[in-house]
Amino acid sequence: MQPKRKRLSVSSAGHWVNNIFLALCAVATVFPFINIIAVSLSGSRAISAGEVLLWPVEFNIAAYRNLIEDGQLIVAMKNTVLITGVGTLLNMVFTTLAAYPLSKPGLRGRSVMLQAVLFTMLFGGGMIPHFLLINTLGLVNTYWAIWLPALISVYNMFVMKSFFEGLPAEIEESASMDGANEWVVLLRIILPLSMPVIAALTLFYAVGWWNSYMNVLIYIRSTDKMSLMVKLYQMIDLVSPEMLRSGEGVAQQTITPEGIRAAAIVFSITPILCVYPFLQRHFIKGVLLGSVKG
Fold first, then answer.
1. Which contiguous run of DSSP H or E holds residue 253?
2. Would you call 101 exposed, middle or buried from its count of C-beta atoms within 10 A (0-12, 13-18, 19+)?
3. Pick from 55, 141, 190, 237: most CB atoms within 10 A?
4. Which pLDDT score is estimated for 248?
5. Which of 42-56, 164-178, 186-200, 233-247 has the lowest mean pLDDT?
6. CA–CA separation, 209 vs 221, rounded Å?
7. How far is residue 102's CA from residue 152's CA, in Å, rounded to a whole number?
8. Which of 91, 142, 152 is CA-nearest to residue 120?
9. Nearest to 102 by CA among 32, 152, 45, 147
10. Element at 89 (helix H, strand E)
11. Of 151-165, 167-181, 183-197, where does mean pLDDT reach its minimum?
12. Nearest alpha-carbon partner for 198 in 249, 160, 250
């Protein structure tokens, strides 16, 4: 008697299809990044011939040397760290101070304030009125010109507000019975319980500040205050095969514009990639918990 063959169930087939689909998505996501790294570390001849795929060909770090040899990129990196650090700190402070009171159902005028905040999410004054306001305040060529207008992201504020609303009200009530005021409840009870959403929003804000380009380009005039993204764009925009030469011994090796662009991309995203793993475990949990309620 022949043994019965196990039939592939529909759920098992769907499981395999999902795994294959997710694997293809992962490959499609990782492949460009690996290719960029390989191009940034390859020689000019291999890049021009299109021989670089997943591994550096004719290993060469001349593109990175060309980016950092004059020291301007290091200064831009320091500026970007300052912009990102202070900007993210201000964002989290003011987002929390806005979300916490708006999460209280008993707040007077709560619905009117929520509608006013939502209005700013849907409509804006535009670039020209925004520039005129910043110029009138005398903030041009200062980092406050980019920090102050972006103190609060309405979307992030609603995410944090929803998270606060999901916390048990009994915790605050018991703390109030012990004599704790609103500041004590917020700083010692609510915020420690809100680390997932805080980590997620911190990452959102930090990535936004790190990649900031247009506001810096409009409001910052001094070259020594430029952010990393603006400086990289200026350096890439001035790239030409004739001016990219790196001395190695007696011979001169030409650096291709593609190699410079690849090195600039790797240089700009590496710090964020180093920070992300430390916040990843809080990231998804914070966003999901903060988006359950409207």
1. strand 251-254
2. middle
3. 190
4. 46
5. 233-247
6. 18
7. 14
8. 152
9. 152
10. helix 72-102
11. 167-181
12. 160
pLDDT greater at residue 121 or residue 93: 93
The helix (H) or strand (E) run that includes residue 254 is: strand 251-254
CA distance 38 to 52: 7
User: pLDDT-based confidence at 84, cuts 50/70/90?
Assistant: very high
CA 146 to chain centre: 16
152: tokens are 């609060």
Full-model pTM: 0.77
* Least confident stretch, 36-50, 90-104, 136-150, 249-263: 249-263
Contacts of 82 (CB under 8 A, 6+ apart): 143
Per-residue three-class SS string for 8-68:
CCHHHHHHHHHHHHHHHHHHHHHHHHHHHHHHHCCCHHHHHCCCCCCCCCCCCCHHHHHHH
Structure tokens given for 246: 């790196």
For the residues 110-128, what does the mean pLDDT come to?
Answer: 85
SS3 252: strand
CB of 135 within 8 A of CB of 129?
Answer: no
